[in-house]
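In the current project phase, we have settled on a layout for protein records. One protein thus recorded is set out beneath this paragraph:
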Amino acid sequence: VKDLAKGIGRQCVVFNCSDQLDYKMMGKLFAGVAQCGCWICLDEFNRIDIEVLSVVAQQLLLIRIALLADKERFMFEGREMRLKPTEGVFITMNPGYA
């Protein structure tokens, strides 16, 4: 993902996930990504606690629905924000954790 982003001139942020993450931190991360339109690679995504993953899935669904509707602004985590359609979220998983 990083090499592809570099090849097409897109900013890509790699974020190492851990079991210490909570849904509020992930919400802030997704809000920033949605507003700036960069790509994010969530490395070792399966290390996040299952309870947090449930909320993260809902957060990503809100962003996806807004992208599919070609919205320029949308409601996320109780506030209205702009949405750049170049935004992308990618994940990597290590089967050694679980």
Remarks:
- The chain has a mean pLDDT of 92.
- Strands lie at 12-16, 39-43, 73-76, 79-82, 88-91.
- The first strand starts at residue 12 and ends at 16.
